[in-house]
Amino acid sequence: MLIDDLTEGTYYWRVTATGDLHGFERLSMPTSSSFNLIYGLVEPEEFDLLLPGDTVLIDIYGISDLLFGWEDAVSVIPGDTIKYLFYLGPDPDVPIGAVIIDSTYDESQLTMQVDSATTPLGEWEYWRVNAVNKYDLNRWSTSSRSVMFYNLCDLNHDGVRDIADLTNLIVFLFITYEEPVPLEVANCDCEGTIDVGDLTRLIVYLFIDYEPFEPCE
């Protein structure tokens, strides 16, 4: 008998004896003996993060939401339930300083809505997940991961593309050569190198046709 097949409670037991020769059976005498089955309360088992990977740059231009996923946290307690708390913040020791805390209940993934006006841009953010069972015992994901969000051609990370971004790109290309963070934010024409083509693309957008940018693949 597997102990996992039993729920917590009081159990009474008897034994049946079966003869090998004729197969006769006799049930043991009734007894008032019993035992109480109580499972020890332990935190969920170890689990880790799945996606996105660590130190990933994510261009949020044209994206309305992002998927974060992790392994299921398993509980050895029969009938237990687990909910997940998702943390995202600027400190490697999340949830210290977390700016986003969300409960995903029993799903081992979270679809995070992104908005260039509210999502932290141009800085490393760290995320981690905490699994909590119905007894309020918890287990943190084995690791935390880092991610940096940026909005294509928004060099100063203020959520809009304007003259300030054009100025920053000119300064980078012709004066200081100090790279924007991340460098990919200045890849306005999606050709992979930062040059006059990116400057031209931004000028056309700002002063000529306002044609929307195409997300880089």
What are the main properties of this structure?
30% strand; Immunoglobulin-like; three-stranded antiparallel β-sheet; 217 residues; mainly beta; six-stranded mixed β-sheet
Write a short abstract of this structure.
With 217 residues, this protein is mostly beta strands.
Characterization of this structure:
This protein has 3 domains: 3-37, no CATH class; 49-150, Immunoglobulins (Immunoglobulin-like, Sandwich), CATH 2.60.40.10; 152-217, Type 1 dockerin domain (Orthogonal Bundle), CATH 1.10.1330. It has 2 helices and 13 strands, in the order βββββββββββββαα. The chain has helices at residues 163-174, 196-207, and strands spanning 9-12, 16-18, 25-27, 34-37, 49-51, 56-59, 65-70, 82-89, 100-105, 109-113, 124-133, 138-140, 145-150. The longest helix is centred in the last third of the chain and has 12 residues, at 163-174. Strands 6, 8, 9, 11, 12 and 13 form a 6-stranded mixed β-sheet that branches. Strand 2 and strand 3 (25-27) form a beta hairpin. It has 217 residues and is mainly β. The chain is rod-shaped.
